[in-house]
Write a sequence for this structure.
């Protein structure tokens, strides 16, 4: 068994839901690189069970986007002092240090800064100035009159990291009826996996003619997806029951499929084979990982692939 | 000086143990101009002698409370050598009394500041002194403004009253927004808004974006790209304190060649993987409730002799907002025999952690 797709399928076999497109995937040099997708059901308690695997060629683009959110904090001198005091207390939490740090914070206010603040306050108290946006006007008057402005101490404050989102486009051109069948099955499997299912119960009155399925009003959760890219035969393995692929490309884990589009009309006009199957099909899918990606994830990847030796 | 020596000197000056580089011949004659990204990690330091405002400034503008972790020597990508400086100024309509205060408040401020030392000094009479101080504000402001207020009453008050009457007449016939126009046209006079442009602060922090196109020419360069990406990813992301059990967790690795073979059944001959599920102690642990901040970076530009390029701007302590990696080109994925991609595009955006002032800019760029 030299075909890498077959190798992985044998490892992760689920029988009827092991799908691949095209049938020659992994068989020749051009199709040695491929995408392997594991589809898992979410069960009670959050456990997941593998329900199917899909092998597809490489998507047109692979984009791995990391975003970190920082908020602009307009601290002003008081806020900046508070941060300075807090930083000092954090280095040594003791009553003595807290007292010293607070005194040092008070010492940060010199007469120049205090004068500017007091003058602003004084001017804002004048009738007519303190109405409407008078507070701003008072500050601006003092700024203009003294040629000095209060430093807003604007700084970036770390807020959060978002969930990683991936969008992949697969261009599929079936070359025989087997490919067409497989592609249709793949599309249906993706569709069924990304949608919830209505939970029904069988109602039985003892007479088969009166048996029917009753809607419970509840739905099962959509399935989760794991994507890996394989570019070299010696580059894959398993860690904690999780399949992993190329060290050079991202691995998408525990992701929800948030959109799935199928476009059969991609070459300018609709075109069909003799058996009425479309000549080309473009699949576009968006996945969002369900867990945030932190430095710990990078650490795990590094342990797996031995990329850098230094600890971080 | 050889490229190696140049990088060695920079390494020493930055205090890092290694420099990741791309391309391999960076700092040579072919890639003489290059940039150096240095990564710093926050460390708690004892700065008790600093006053709180200085301590805050040091945390965001310098690398004093940080230790250098990694450095990256990279070629200068297209569009990388640009920066921007901004200062917000706003138009403010002071009106007569606002303008009057504007012209006089310098004196008001001086007079008030002269009294401040007495207020700031704490003694038994602090409360009564504070009370006196606030009482003095009214007296001081009143005495400074009275000459111009008197002139306004003598010269402009009658016009103002006529203007108000004009507005009232207009209000009988027209909507409220047009009454000022009626008064203005009928009197051929209009109110002076005493508009002034006032400095509103430096509100924008500088942002610098770089777009690197990595085309590796050897497996070593592919490996270097992977190291650069891994280190930048690790540095830009938050971390959390991990329990000891998780730190000790062993990662088990299997290679496809090392696997056992199924000896019976339909998959006879197929190699399979033994998995190592996590123990209960490992899976039941919750992650920490707090994140450690991501690391910060500085960026400097170097010239052919390995010294800092004094003709260019320098980038101060920044955080990475975005790291985008795109593999493949023109809708095609092409790989080397070892599985490494032939092209990786890395878009990276840095945002400085502080708003620039003249003092900071001088310290940073000279």
């Amino acid at each position: 068994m030299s075909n890498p797709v077959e190798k992985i399928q044998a490892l992760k076999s689920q029988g009827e839901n092991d799908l691949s497109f095209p049938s020659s995937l992994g068989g020749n040099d051009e199709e040695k690189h491929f995408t392997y997708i594991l589809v898992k059901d979410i069960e009670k308690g959050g456990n997941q069970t593998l329900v199917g695997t899909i092998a597809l060629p490489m998507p047109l683009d692979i984009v791995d986007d990391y975003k970190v959110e920082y908020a602009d904090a307009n601290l002003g001198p008081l806020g900046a002092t508070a941060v300075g005091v807090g930083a000092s207390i954090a280095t040594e939490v003791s009553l003595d240090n807290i007292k010293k740090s607070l005194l040092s914070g008070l010492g940060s206010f010199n007469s120049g800064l205090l004068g500017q603040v007091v003058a602003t306050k004084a001017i804002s108290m004048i009738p007519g100035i303190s109405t409407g946006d008078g507070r701003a006007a008072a500050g601006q008057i003092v700024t203009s009159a003294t040629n000095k402005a209060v430093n807003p101490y604007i700084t970036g404050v770390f807020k959060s990291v978002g969930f990683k989102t991936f969008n992949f486009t697969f261009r599929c051109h079936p070359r025989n009826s087997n490919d067409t069948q497989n592609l249709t099955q793949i599309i249906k499997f993706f569709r069924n996996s990304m949608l919830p299912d209505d939970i029904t119960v069988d109602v039985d009155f003892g007479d088969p003619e009166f048996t029917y399925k009753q809607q419970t009003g509840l739905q099962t959760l959509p399935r989760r997806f794991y994507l890996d890219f394989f570019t070299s035969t010696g580059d894959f393995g398993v860690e904690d029951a999780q399949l992993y692929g190329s060290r050079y490309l991202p691995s998408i884990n525990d992701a929800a499929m948030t959109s799935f589009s199928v476009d059969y009309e991609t070459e300018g006009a609709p075109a069909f084979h003799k058996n009425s199957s479309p000549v080309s099909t473009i699949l576009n899918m968006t996945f969002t990982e369900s867990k945030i990606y932190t430095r710990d994830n990078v650490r795990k990847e590094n342990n797996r692939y031995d990329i850098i030796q230094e600890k971080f | 000086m050889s490229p190696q020596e140049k990088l060695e000197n920079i390494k020493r000056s930055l205090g890092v143990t290694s420099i990741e580089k791309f391309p391999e011949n960076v700092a040579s004659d072919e890639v003489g101009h290059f940039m150096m990204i240095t990564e710093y990690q926050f460390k708690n330091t004892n700065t008790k002698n600093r006053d709180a405002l200085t301590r805050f400034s040091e945390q965001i503008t310098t690398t004093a409370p940080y230790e250098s972790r990694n450095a990256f020597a990279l070629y200068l990508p297209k569009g990388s050598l640009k920066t921007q400086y901004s200062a917000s100024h706003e138009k403010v309509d002071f009106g007569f009394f606002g303008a009057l205060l504007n012209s006089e408040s310098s004196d008001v401020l001086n007079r008030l500041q002269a009294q401040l030392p007495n207020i700031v000094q704490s003694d038994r009479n602090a409360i009564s002194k504070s009370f006196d101080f606030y009482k003095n504000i009214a007296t001081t402001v009143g005495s400074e403004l009275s000459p111009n207020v008197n002139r306004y009453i003598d010269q402009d008050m009658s016009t103002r009253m006529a203007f108000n009457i004009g507005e009232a007449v207009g209000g009988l016939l027209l909507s409220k927004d047009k009454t000022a126009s009626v008064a203005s046209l009928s009197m051929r006079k209009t109110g002076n808004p005493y508009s002034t442009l006032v400095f509103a602060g430096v509100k924008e922090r500088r942002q610098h974006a770089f777009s690197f196109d990595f085309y590796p020419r050897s497996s070593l360069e592919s490996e270097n790209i992977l190291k650069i990406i891994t280190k930048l990813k690790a540095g830009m992301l938050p971390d959390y304190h991990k329990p000891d059990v998780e730190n000790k967790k062993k990662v088990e690795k299997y290679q496809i060649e090392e696997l056992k073979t199924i000896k019976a059944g339909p998959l006879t001959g197929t190699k399979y993987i033994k998995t190592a599920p996590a123990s209960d102690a490992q899976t039941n642990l919750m992650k920490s409730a707090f994140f450690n901040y991501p690391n910060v970076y500085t960026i400097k530009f170097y010239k052919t002799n390995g010294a800092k390029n004094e003709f260019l701007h320098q980038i101060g302590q920044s955080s990475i907002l975005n790291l985008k990696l795109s593999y493949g080109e023109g809708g095609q994925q092409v790989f080397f025999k070892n599985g490494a991609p032939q092209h990786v595009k890395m878009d990276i955006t840095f945002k400085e952690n502080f708003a620039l002032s003249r003092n900071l800019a001088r310290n940073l760029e000279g």
